[in-house]
Amino acid sequence: MRELEVVGVRVEMPSNNPIVLLREVDGERFLPIWIGAPEASAIAFAQQGVESPRPLTHDLLKNVLEAVGAPLTQVRITSMVDNVYHAELVLASGVVVPSRSSDAIALALRARCPIMGADDVLDTAGMPVPAEDEDEVERFRTFLDQVSAEDFEGPGGDDPETGTGPSRGQEPDGPTS
Q1: Measured between alpha carbons, how far is 116 from 77 in angstroms, rounded to an integer?
Q2: Which residue of 11, 115, 133, 169 has the fewest CB atoms within a 10 Å radius of its CB?
Q3: Sheet of strand 115-117: strand arrangement
Q4: What gap in Å lies between CA 113 and CA 46, rounded to an integer?
Q5: C-alpha 108 chain-centroid distance
């Protein structure tokens, strides 16, 4: 087993599917896991330290485990079967509970416990971190640390009267060539 850290959550284009990206703490591989939108939100909220006025499902489970004296001590990504990741929750009592990987990651972030990846999972599904992309990963982490949902709100469209949207003859990123 190797320790993994959550790099962040993003949306894979053009499929528009959320993905959580994990990285070996003392290694050279990424582990991408495609997840559902609710789980992506739960992971992103935990990473950003967002607290709901009332406990959300992952908060509730963490609270219940702590209340019964069996807090979460570790999460393990144990296997990949038919392109589906399987995980386990390891409790302080020694009990091991099967879990979806996305739920396990969301819970691990809340419990502040290690996320471990099985060597065979990393050997099969891990992707090497290209040396030239390490700066890109750090920029992505910085972006994730600074972005909030409000950053994506605002006027949209292409209205010449209000000045919103791209000007005629321009792509959203600047002039066409």
Answers
A1: 6
A2: 169
A3: 96-100, 84-91, 72-81, 115-117, 2-12, 17-24, 29-34, 127-128
A4: 13
A5: 11
Q: How far apart are CA 80 and CA 171, in angstroms?
A: 41
Q: Which residues contact 98 (CB under 8 A, 6 or more apart)?
A: 86, 87, 88, 89
pLDDT winner (highest mean) among 24-28, 55-59, 60-64, 103-107? 103-107
Between CA 105 and CA 81 the distance in angstroms is: 18
Phi/psi of residue 110, nearest 5 degrees: -70, -40
Burial of 144 per CB tally in 10 Å (0-12, 13-18, 19+): middle
Q: Kindly state the tokens that stand for 174.
A: 């600047």
Model pTM score: 0.70
Distance of CA 90 to the CA centre of its chain: 20
Q: What would the two tokens of residue 98 be?
A: 């099967």
Work out the average pLDDT over 80-88: 92
User: Residues near 99 by Cβ (< 8 Å), separated by ≥ 6?
Assistant: 75, 87, 88, 89, 107
Tell me phi and psi for residue 28, to 5 degrees: -125, 25
CB contact set of 147 (below 8 Å; sequence gap of 6+): none
